[in-house]
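ESCALATION

Customer reports they have been waiting on this structure for their group meeting. Please prioritize. Original submission:
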Amino acid sequence: MERMCALPMQHLMATVILALALGLAFMLEHKFQELEEELVYLKRNYKTLETECDMLKSKVESYDHVFSKVNGSLKEQVRVIQTDVGSLKIQMENLKQAALNTGYTGGSWYNHKGAASNFLCLPENPQWGTRSLNNFQAFVYGAEYENNFFGGNAHQQDVPCSVCKTKTGTNSAMIPARTSCYDGWTIQYKGYLGAGFHNHLASTEYVCVDENIQFIPGGYENKDGKLIYPVVAKCGSLRCHPYIENKPIACVVCSY
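Update from on-call: job pushed to the front of the queue and completed.
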């Protein structure tokens, strides 16, 4: 009787163990599937991140290339500017050594009927005689640029001047409509032709305004006086071609 009760109990225990084993196997299989899905997800994300990383590397390389070109261009520009500044310093030093008189450009009032036509270079340190006068005078005024053609912010600036001696040759000439000297001549400076406005009463002469324009410090104020405008070509008796209507006339000062 006891043996008959023991057999069902063994079967029951085996059934329970089998059920537990099956349950555990099912759980492990489910967990394995979850891990497998997570691995696929991670692989896909890794691939996306790898692609983005390659794109970022490509952008960095592109930026490096652009930066290298810009840096090279900036270095070249700095070198050119330094060369130009050095050249200007040498020119200024040569002008200081060659200047016989440095001062203020002067002349008659732009709208006076009896105005003198020529420009003057008035020294910074004038010397005065002993005589005085109360009437029947002529006048001399300072000069101003009347637009920005000759240089940035030139409008209304007062005009400096220099009278110089040359280290080469004994004669000098201002040549309009040229930017270089003839063979055998030495250039002193170049720029653009200037004169008074065509509709003003006062006559003026043509002058060659240096392309490296300078101003009198503190002279930015509209006080008029002798006014300087750029000169342009007008077709007619002046042949076009080779001249061009309303084209500003260049100039050069040469010694020989």
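Sent to customer with the following note: The beta strands are 99-107, 120-123, 141-145, 160-164, 172-176, 186-195, 207-210, 226-230, 250-255.
Escalation resolved.
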